[in-house]
UniProtKB/TrEMBL annotation:
Subcellular location(s) per record: Cytoplasm
Domain UVR: 208-243
SMART domains listed in its UniProt record: GIYc (SM00465), HhH1 (SM00278)
Record GO terms (molecular function): DNA binding; excinuclease ABC activity
Protein name listed in UniProt: UvrABC system protein C
Biased composition (Low complexity): 479-495, 667-676
The UvrC family homology region profile domain, residue ranges: 259-544
Signal peptide bounds: none
Species annotation: Streptomyces roseirectus
Function: The UvrABC repair system catalyzes the recognition and processing of DNA lesions. UvrC both incises the 5' and 3' sides of the lesion. The N-terminal half is responsible for the 3' incision and the C-terminal half is responsible for the 5' incision.
Amino acid sequence: MADPSSYRPQPGAIPESPGVYKFRDEHRRVIYVGKAKSLRQRLGSYFQDLAGLHPRTRTMVTTAASVEWTVVSTEVEALQLEYSWIKEYDPRFNVKYRDDKSYPYLAVTMNEEYPRVQVMRGQKKKGVRYFGPYGHAWAIRDTVDLLLRVFPVRTCSAGVFKNAARTGRPCLLGYIGKCSAPCVAKVSAEEHRELAEEFCDFMTGRTGTYLRRLEKQMVAAADEMEYERAARLRDDIEALKKAMEKSAVVLADATDADLIAVAEDELEAAVQIFHVRGGRVRGQRGWVTDRVEEVTTAGLVEHALQQLYGEESGDAVPKEVLVPALPEPVEPVQEWLAGRRGAGVSLRIPQRGDKRALMETVARNAQQALALHKTKRASDLTTRSRALEEIAEALDLDSAPLRIECFDISHLQGDDVVASMVVFEDGLARKSEYRRFQIKGFEGQDDVRSMHEVITRRFRRYLAEKERTGEWTDDEPPADGATPAGTDTPAAPDGVTPPAPTTPATPGNAFTEEDGRPKKFAYPPQLLVVDGGQPQVAAAKRALDELGIDDIAVCGLAKRLEEVWLPGEDDPVVMPRTSEGLYLLQRVRDEAHRFAITYQRTKRAKRFRAGPLDDVPGLGETRKQALIKHFGSVKKLRSATIDQICEVPGIGRKTAETIAAALDRAAPAAPAVNTATGEIMEDEERGQEP
């Protein structure tokens, strides 16, 4: 018996979406398939105290060794996918299938003189049109009940039909309009068969034409003032739309297709494939792969096609293969697929309709697979410990770097130069410790100088906090900020004197504020990582040396070959690509890169949106928009008088005078105007370092 906690997913890794899940045993056999409105809530119920579980459920979870899930859009889709998997895997703990209870179909007996709509199970019969399968018989009855008001087809048994014909009185459905009552000759056999054929056409997906026809009839009835008939047609249309909402995970044209979706980041990519046969999802597979080379989404798709269809014993190529991006060039790949299939293959990107919607479902599953993979690797304590030990060994550190800080520089062609600092503690991101910087010491593009400035500023703050909080080796704190005997605290560079400590240091309160939170920049890292190669590493090391800090290890991670550079070394440290230590360094570096780019883009967007009205104190976004809407542009607002400005709702005379003064101060000789908003753009971005 297995311990369920050994394979329990992290609660945050399980989505709250509807979906279907599978429990597998140690031999990877599927032992249970279930569906859920909320995967997180349902799966969480399996991992409670074993004593509180039903005996059968307890046996299942202790037999299982892993659990996985697939996200879908609706509960109806979950029903259909659950059936498909039960049919495919025959899980031992799924009671219905073990009891040989097949899933129900909606059947239309076109082999009879008066076709009948009914629920059918078991072996299919010749001459009967089948739709489904459905998860439950009630789902069929709900659908039929909605459609009968539009397509009043017979639903009664042979005995009821014969009895009505004998007595000349129809059943209740005939009286309320949900049956055309062929039993009493209200319609002929030909007219009733035509209704049954229209019913089948609607169920096969030919819905658009019929709905448009009903809508035209409704409009025509209203124009002719036949309002009761128009209202009845309106209700018919609403009933059909409700029935369409109950459709399953199907493609309306009942085609055979494979849908391939890719979720990716700079390090890894997740591929998900849904196999659709006869318009229904019949299978799913996927994998996560390392991006060991620079490859586009189209390249990832091409690799997936090769892996999926390249082997002799691989999957049969369907008529259609739907992908998020086409390989370049696409013709050779398409010809290869056609050769594998022995007939033409349509390789394309779905643009609209059911196929586009189903592709979005596949893409969500790919995103979830990638997120789950990263969560597993990042949250596994053993893996993180091994990664830190590998980093310590590769960089010849005295101990594992429990706190790692990484710095990255970002700009757009030399404009809006910013930097980021991200923090990982025990191998996990500590987002509350993230910081971002504006480069202030110079203008233009120089990543090396920028790195030196940022490292200097960050560790000046560290030294200032260290002295201010009184982290000294002696028992008594120094007076007036003097350095106590026996310590080797350097003076702050560039003539900046760190502030004197305001309160004595006491055990347990160093580096903490009154509310218990850590002070900004108070903790030093054991390892400082920079995004770059030798020049950036040298700049970071020089900044630390100038500050007199020699107990922090420094390294750089170059993106091109994922080489680790150390200060003063001519050759990089090459860590194995499968190393968990390298994987952690890559995650840290990429997180710093993401954080820097986000800040840089935010600054750039604010610069384009900035205008002289931003300097007016107390003038919010609503009143700024009211001013621009009233005058049409900042230029016309600048030429307006104070009395004219006061005419804008919400603007008093004092505020109008402040606005006029701000516009006069900001008036440039040749203003640069944002053509999108009509506002004047300032030369510089205001703001302070967080």
